[in-house]
Amino acid sequence: MQGLNRRFFGCVVEMTAYINLKGVLAKVRKQQEHLQEILTVGEENELEDVLKEAEQFTAEIQNLLQWLNEIDNALSMSKSVGGSPETASGQLELLIEINQELEKSLQLVESCHERGSR
Q1: Are 108 and 60 in contact (CB under 8 A)?
Q2: Residue ranges per domain, the chain?
């Protein structure tokens, strides 16, 4: 009879340990799901940040392209080199003005080039 009681008691202890282990496992799974949700939200935020940066970069490039088209149009509309001193003086002023604009925008162009090369 004592042997039977010991086996019964041993089974009860094993079942209790199993039930406790099952509860701990459920808690661990719940924590894992919670951490996965946190990671997913973090990844979404990171992707949104990258998307915003890409959109800003695209806008900067579009602004630069528009600006370059304006410079190109200004150069295309200028008269051919030569002619009267007044024409040459006007052309020189236009070229100096364009050169100044190019120098002002050089840092922005280099910055965009560097960002685009990454």
Answers
A1: yes
A2: 2-82, 84-117
For helices 2-77 and 85-117, what crossing angle results, to 10°? 170
In this structure, what token pair is assigned to residue 95?
């070229």
- Residue 67 burial (CB count, 10 A): 15
The whole-angstrom separation of Cα 118 and Cα 116 is 6
Q: What is the pTM of this model?
A: 0.56
Angstrom CA distances, 39 to 44, 66, 105, stand at: 9, 40, 41
Among the listed residues 96, 95, 109, the one whose alpha carbon sits nearest the alpha carbon of residue 67: 109
User: Two tokens at 31?
Assistant: 């924590």
- Helix, coil or strand: residue 82: coil
Using one digit for the tens of pLDDT, what is the confidence trace for 12-67? 667 777 677 777 778 888 888 888 888 788 888 888 888 898 898 888 888 888 88
